[in-house]
Amino acid sequence: MNDTIAAVATASGVGSVAIVRLSGDRALEIAKKVSKRSSFTPRYATLTSLYDKQDELIDEVIVIYFKAPHSFTTEDVVEFQCHGGSIVAEKILDTVMGYGARLAQPGEFTKRAFIGGRIDLTEAEAIAGLIEARSEDAARILARQMKGELKNYIEDVKERLLRAVAFAEVTIDYAEEDLPEDLVESILHQLTQIRTEMAKTLSSSERRRGLIEGFKVAIVGKPNVGKSSLLNAMLDYERAIVSAIAGTTRDTIEEQIRIGSHLVRIVDTAGIRHSADTIEKIGIERSVAAVEQSDIVVALFDASREWEEEDEQILSLLDRFEGEKEIIAALSKTDLPQKIERSKIERFAPILLDKRNRADKIVSELEKRLSKMAQGDELLLVSARQIDALKRAQEAINEAMAPLEAGELEIFSFYLTEAITAISSISKPVDFNDIMDKMFGEFCLGK
User: Fold this and answer.
1) What are 7-38's pLDDT values in tens digits?
2) 275 and 312 within one domain
C-alpha cells in the first residue's frame, strides 16, 4: 500500500480527452517533477505543461490534485487530463513510472478505496457493475448501491442480529440480572421479520438477475422452422446460414442487440429433434442448456406443417419451464396454407409471423416482456457472491430458530453468529466486539 500506482483511467482509442491517474504517497511529488511546478492547490484544475525525463514537452494538460484523505482512494491522488488518443496518455504513464510509480493492477484503485474505508464491498461491486451496465434500469439500481442502499440494508440486518445475539449472551452470562420476560418471543419476532425480508430480497434478485447481467433470450424450435431467419431479421443482417436443409444450424449462435433500454443476448439454437448424428446431438444438447440458462424463451412452430413429434418435444420443453421463464410462442410461415394443430399451443397466445413481420412482432413482444421484468423498486443483490452470502445467512437463521425455542441459547448464539458473519461478508467483516457493546450499553450490566 506504500507504492504509488498509476494507470490510464479512460478507455483506449481516439477521443478528445484521456485521463492518467496517480495514487499514493508520492503522487504529488511525481506530479511536481513531470510538470516542473513547485505546488498544486488541492481540488483546483491547473493548466500546465508536462515533460518527460529528457525535458521534452509531452502535452499541455489539466492537473487536479486531491489531498488525502479527501480522494477516492483516501490517498493523495493526481489526475492528468490530456489530449485523447493512446500515444499522449501512454507517454505520460511511462514518464510517471520512470519517476517511481508502478502500473496499477486491475481494480487496484477501488481496492485501495475499500481498504481506506472510503467504500465497502457493496459499493465496490456496484462500481464494477456500473461500468458494464447492460440497461438503464441496471445503471439506476447500481447507482443507488453506490450511494449505499445495499450497505444500509446490510448494516440494519446485522444490527438486529447483533441485538439478538446480545440478548442471548446476556441471558446466559447474567441470568441473575432483571431481564425482560418476553425476551425469547421478542427475538423470535425479530428473526421472523428478518427471514421474510431476506426471502423477498433473494426472490427479487434471482427473478430480476438479468437486469444486472443482461437478459438472455433463446430461440427454439424444430429444424427448418425459421429460427435462423428470425435471428437474421432481428439483427438486420445475415448472421446465420439459412437453407431448406434440416439441421443446418448445428450449434448455438449468440449475438447481442438492444431492445428498448436493454442490451439482450439472443441465442439461435440448433433444431431440437431425435438425431443419430453425433455432432448434431451435441448441438441439440447445447440448445436445451441455452433454454435452461435463458430468461425468455421464443418458441417457433411451423404453421405450414402438421403437428409432429418434434413439435411435441418443444412443447414438453415449454411445459418444463412454464411459470419459471417468460415464454413467447410464435407461428412462422403463416403466409402459407395452414396445417398445424393450433390448439396445442393456444394457451401461449401464439404470435403470427410471416416474411414481412417476422422480426417486428417478436421484438415488440420482447420489449413488453423485458419492461415487465424490469418493473419494481425492490432492493437487488447484484452478484452471485452477494446472493450466496444472503442464502447462507438465511440458512443459519433457520437453524437458530429451534434452539432458541428450546432454550438452548449457546447453540442459538452459534448459528446466529454464523448468520452475522455471512451477511457481513456482503459489505465488510463484522467486529464481534459490537456484541459486548450492546450487552453493556443496552442493558447497563456490570453496574
Assistant:
1) 999 887 778 899 999 999 999 999 999 999 99
2) yes
CATH number where 340 lies:
3.40.50.300
- Helical (H) or strand (E) element with 215: strand 215-220
Q: How far is CA 170 from the centre of its chain?
A: 40
Residues 227 and 353 in one domain: yes
- With respect to residue 133, please indicate whether it lies within any of the assigned structural domains: no
The residue segments making up the domain with residue 411 are 149-207+382-443
Does residue 124 form part of some domain?
Answer: no
Distances (CA, A) of 437 to 155, 163, 417: 16, 10, 15
End-of-domain residue from the set 339, 371, 403: 371
pLDDT for 86-143, tens place per residue? 799 999 999 999 999 999 998 899 999 999 989 888 888 888 888 777 777 778 888 8
Residue whose C-alpha cell is 446460414: 241
Q: Is 331 helix (H, G, I), strand (E, B) or coil?
A: strand
Q: Which residues of 72-109 are buried (b: 16+ CB within 10 A; e: fewer)?
A: bbbbbbbbbbbebeeebbebbbebbbebebeebeeebb
Please choose, from the candidates 238, 264, 258, 254, the residue with its C-alpha nearest in 3D space to the C-alpha of residue 287.
254
- Percent residues over pLDDT 70 in the chain: 84
- Tell me which amino acid residue 305 is: R
